[in-house]
Amino acid sequence: MSVLVNKNSKVIVQGFTGSEGSFHAQQMIEYGTNVVGGVTPGKGGSTHLEKPVFNSVEEAVSKTGADTSIIFVPPAFAADAIMEAADAGIKVIIAITEGIPVADMMKAKPYIKERGATLIGPNCPGVITPGEAKVGIMPGFVFKQGRIGIVSKSGTLTYEAADQIVKAGMGVSTAIGIGGDPIIGTSTKDAVQLLMEDPETDAIVMIGEIGGNYEADAARWIRENGNQKPVVGFIAGQTAPPGRRMGHAGAIVGGADDTAIAKMRIMRENGIHVAESPAEIGAVMAKALGVEA
Q1: Element (H, E) at 94
Q2: φ/ψ (deg, to 5) at 292
Q3: Secondary structure string (H, E, C) spanning 140-185
Q4: Which string of b and e fits 24-42 if b means at least 16 CB within 10 Å?
Q5: Which residues does substrate bind (predicted)?
Q6: What is the pLDDT of residue 249?
Q7: CA angle (20 as vertex; 18, 23 as ends), nearest 5
Q8: DSSP state, 275?
Q9: Which of 126, 74, 78, 84 is nearest to 103 (CA)?
Q10: Closest CA to 210 of 236, 185, 233, 232
Q11: Which residues are annotated as a binding site?
């Protein structure tokens, strides 16, 4: 089992024929992901990367039975693309696009929730279930099959955590890059809950960053639900000066609990094993599971 995506996922690419969509769709296909087609308005009826192109998500769903979409659409149009996917019955929507206007996301988030869809992102690297499906932009070769789930606000640190886990002799069940924008579809807690409920995930790596309260909320939820599985946490931005935005739009300290030190303290208080640096993630996980790294 896995969460969100697997070998049975039928994936379409919105923004299929653009440069980003083309490049990453090709990588996904080569990985073995079941890409069944793509959407570019005005180019319906043609083929691209030997897959059919459709004018709308509704048409793509009716012709292919797609249930998952990945979005490579420019920021000004991306929220509409997200809502179009939800309208067409897509259940897992992964928005790679960075810089979608906050006002647009304030409309899109409740819209897709009402339609029972799960949104990952925006501004995220996607989701990968190693050996089954890569729906995103992550380097697939880093990820090996296993039983450790990864939830991360940082794209690069998702790959680093996977590398650490693999080098420690373990592997990954599903890795979820939730995205770094101020408004995202799936919170750290939501993603952790998915992995907690997955019988083929034995432990979880939770990577956060300064700004916001996602990690604190997740840590408290983990304790309130009995610390069912070992969780290793890491917070990026430990040397960030207060009040300065760092990389992600959401990575800005707004209060005392937004700092890396405060978040690490909250994680420890709630029974999470904290790694002081990303280089320690694999070793801390091995120790938490009582295995030799």
Answers
A1: strand 92-95
A2: -80, 125
A3: HHHCCEEEEEEEECCHHHHHHHHHHHHHCCCCEEEEEECCCCCCCC
A4: bbebbbebebbbbbbbbee
A5: 159
A6: 59
A7: 100
A8: P
A9: 78
A10: 236
A11: 17-20, 43, 96-98, 159
* Paired strand residues for 69: 12, 93
Domains of the chain: 11-120 (3.40.50.720), 138-289 (3.40.50.261)
Tokens of 87: 């309208």
Rounded to whole angstroms, how far apart are CA atoms 107 and 164?
A: 38
Cis peptide before 182 (omega within 30 of 0): no
pLDDT digits (tens, 9 = 90+) for 125-146: 999 999 999 999 999 999 999 9
Q: Which residues are catalytic?
A: 248
Strand order in the sheet with 203-209: 133-136, 126-129, 172-177, 145-152, 203-209, 231-236, 273-274
How far apart are the C-alpha atoms of 70 and 5, rounded to whole Å? 11
Q: Which residues are annotated as a binding site for substrate?
A: 159
Tokens 């949104």 appear where? 119
Answer yes or no: are the C-beta atoms of 25 and 196 closer than 8 Å.
no
